[in-house]
């Protein structure tokens, strides 16, 4: 019971460290009051936590292709090493089976703790159960699991609802939406999609085009571009109002196809603030409208701090869930936010 009650305290602490967003309206964040990503990460590194000297910590990332995965992966390693831990790091090249095998291998090595970054919930469940059975605490990043001691992520309920409400308002509460929904088993995408559907209950004149498009992990942009081109052929001008994706890469491909076709009546929305997405949002002639910046380095740093607290006998100070600030970016603020967050 004490552990759960620490969640409120943890959120207050993170508000100081990361500038947790509260009371944000559509297309408005607390970014003007929050610190930059680099400054927040530096502040998290200054948090007083126990040493990890003599401990071995495994890190298992699904991939390091996207900026989010790469920066989170590096951030957690840097902080673990700074705290004195020996780090055994693996990444799975976006392959679910390899990700599973990497976690199982870390369990067999009897490491003191494991940090898992992203992954398919169904695929990883057996390995995380193995870790729990072996009394190896698991810390997850954007991968909620009943076998995780702590999961770190952005507030994906807020991200999902804000993304959905922004899209709905931008298209005037009516029209057809092309949806990429290939990764519903990935927790952040699941939450964002569920929030999207929930918001649309209040916009009865918005219709999702069926079947939904299935985005893929490798060759994402080109695949999404082709699928969008196919949709543009099936639905002539005026029959598609927007494109929704739970992450930026499919939205980048969709925007490229729509821009090239001159279909400027369609608006595109994504999440993650990938450089390619920000470039398109900053282009006044592109249909890409909106994305969400997270704080991947801070994700990694904070997860490492939680490992140190837990292994250092301060388990009561580690909440089940830790939420970090997200920044909403559109055409009006993209230049300023890129500069402030170091995303140029």
UniProtKB/TrEMBL annotation:
Does this entry carry the keyword DNA repair?
A: no
Places the protein is found: Cell envelope
Q: Where is the signal peptide?
A: 1-23
Say if the entry is tagged with keyword Signal.
yes
* Major subcellular location class: other
Which residue ranges run through the membrane?
none
Keyword annotations: Signal
Q: Where is the Periplasmic binding protein domain?
A: 57-315
Family per UniProt? Belongs to the bacterial solute-binding protein 2 family.
By what name is this protein known? Monosaccharide ABC transporter substrate-binding protein, CUT2 family
Q: Which organism is it from?
A: Plantibacter cousiniae
């Amino acid at each position: 019971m004490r552990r759960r009650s620490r969640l409120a305290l943890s959120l207050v602490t993170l508000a100081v460290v990361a500038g947790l967003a509260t009371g944000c309206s559509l297309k408005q964040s607390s970014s003007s009051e929050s610190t930059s990503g680099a400054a927040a990460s530096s502040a998290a590194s200054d948090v007083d936590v126990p040493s990890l000297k003599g401990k071995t910590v495994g890190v298992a990332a699904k991939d390091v292709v996207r900026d989010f995965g790469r920066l989170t992966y590096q951030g957690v390693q840097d902080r673990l090493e700074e705290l004195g831990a020996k780090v055994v790091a693996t990444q799975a090249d976006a392959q679910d089976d390899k990700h599973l095998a990497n976690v199982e291998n870390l369990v067999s090595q009897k490491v003191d703790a494991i940090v898992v970054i992203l992954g398919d919930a169904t695929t990883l469940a057996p390995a995380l159960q193995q870790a729990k059975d072996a009394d190896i605490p698991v810390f997850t990043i954007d991968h909620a699991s009943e076998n995780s001691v702590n999961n770190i992520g952005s507030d994906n309920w807020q991200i999902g609802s804000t993304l959905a409400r922004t899209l709905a308002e931008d298209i005037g509460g009516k029209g057809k939406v092309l949806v990429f929904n290939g990764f519903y088993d990935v927790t952040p995408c699941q939450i964002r999609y569920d929030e999207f559907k929930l918001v649309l209950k209040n916009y009865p004149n918005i219709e999702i085009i069926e079947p939904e498009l299935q985005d893929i992990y490798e060759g994402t942009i080109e695949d999404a571009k082709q699928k969008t081109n196919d949709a543009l052929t099936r639905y002539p001008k005026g029959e598609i109002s927007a494109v929704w994706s739970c992450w930026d890469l499919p939205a980048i491909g969709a925007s490229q196809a729509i821009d090239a076709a001159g279909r400027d009546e369609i608006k595109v929305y994504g999440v993650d603030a990938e450089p390619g997405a920000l470039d398109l949002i900053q282009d006044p002639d592109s249909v890409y409208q909106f994305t969400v910046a997270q704080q991947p380095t801070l994700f990694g740093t904070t997860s490492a701090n939680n490992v140190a607290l837990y292994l250092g006998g301060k388990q009561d100070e580690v909440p089940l869930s830790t939420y970090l600030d997200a920044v909403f970016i559109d055409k009006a603020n993209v230049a300023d936010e890129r500069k402030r967050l170091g995303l140029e």
